[in-house]
Amino acid sequence: MEKRKGFVAKKDKTNRSIIPMDSDEFFQWMIIAAYAEGKQKEWDQLRQSGFKRLYKKFFYDLFRNGIPKYLIKTGKKLYRARQIKKSDQSKLMVDINEVTLAFFKIFLSEEEISSLDVMNNGGGLKFTIEHLFMMKIYNMEGFTDEQKRKVHKLIKENSNCKVYGFSEKDSRVPPKEYRENGRLNSKADEYLYLAFDRDTAIQEKRPFIGQQYSIAEFKTNKNLVMADLRGKEIDLKLSDVSFAFLADKISEPNTDGKDDFYDITQYMTHMLQKLGFDGIVYKSALKKDKDNIVIFNETNVDFISSEIVSIKDVSVDYSRILPFDKRQFSFTNTSKREKNRK
To answer: How many Cβ atoms sit within 10 Å of the Cβ of residue 331?
Structure first.
């Protein structure tokens, strides 16, 4: 038996702890868990009260020992995704249908294309130029040099770093009438949400298979001092535990769709902006071990380009809570098992 401050950590017959932690790790975990439970109760009471003066006291106490900082250097690339709806097709800087049609026309003659009218004259089948193209290349033994040249030219014309998706205006903060309350912004705030990589930017939009997105690429034009609220560095200091707790609350989803759900985190954001920070770095709620940022002044990043992508797959990792999986629990005596091996 091993004793520490009134607690007992049981050992099995091989003198190993049943809980796979050493003594210091175990008691640290216990203190963190208990402290977080207390903070959760305080957080729930704050949210229910809606009193700004209580918000102020909570965050003043949290921030008085300092706020972790994260520096984003000049020239850092950042990304923002926006869903392309059917009504948005005319806003794209490159017409996808025109590019596709230009590709098909490399292989199809005008006479072949006009034959679609005859093919679709009556009957329940509806053939498109894509079907015609597939039938054509199915019977082809190879490509001519002229076709290869035209394909390479089309690819080159549409492989440059330029604006294919939404324009700069449509890739930045939307006009006030189109904004919604977010986890860190009110409708009045002109904050720009960005991610460090394309995948995370897309995941934040909760994509589904077949949906198209415009991915805008930005680049910082100055060093940005961000409030680091990811809570990644955890020590036994209660200030560290508080920031870890806050990191979870920032990423908490508004599952009930309440209008005032994010009031408390919006208040915190406004406080950090007044303290002189350029924005906030926080954990992604939709992609594990990835981070997002919100920038208070969108002129601190320059628009570079935009591309168009289509979602091919969306995966999810999960663990079952109930019913129990018996394979997760094993109480086999280790010493007996080792003895049988001998």
So the answer is: 5
DSSP class of residue 173?
P
Shared-domain flag, residues 72 and 101: no
**Taking Cα atoms as reference points, which of 219, 217, 198 lies closest to residue 207?**
198
Give the distance, in angstroms, between the CA of residue 305 and the centroid of all CA atoms in the same chain.
Answer: 20
By the 8 A CB rule, do 85 and 211 touch?
A: no
Cross-strand partners of 310: 212
Tell me, yes or no, whether 81 and 224 share the same domain: yes
SS3 197: coil
Strands (E), 61-202: 69-72, 77-83, 192-195
In a domain, 10, yes or no: no
Q: By residue range, what is the domain housing residue 144?
A: 96-157
H runs (alpha helix) in 183-319: 198-203, 238-250, 263-274
CA angle 221, 223, 228 (to 5 degrees): 125
Cβ atoms of 80 and 165 closer than 8 Å: no
Do 182 and 262 meet the contact criterion of CB atoms below 8 Å apart?
yes
Give, for all 342 residues of the chain, the pLDDT tens digit: 344 444 444 454 555 555 666 777 777 777 777 777 888 888 888 888 878 888 998 898 888 888 999 999 999 999 999 999 999 999 999 999 999 999 999 999 999 998 888 888 877 788 899 999 999 889 888 999 999 999 999 999 999 889 999 999 999 999 999 999 899 999 999 999 999 999 999 999 999 999 999 999 999 999 999 999 998 765 545 556 778 888 888 888 888 878 788 999 999 999 999 999 999 999 998 998 999 999 999 999 999 999 999 999 999 888 888 888 777 666 665 555 555 555
The whole model's pTM is what? 0.82
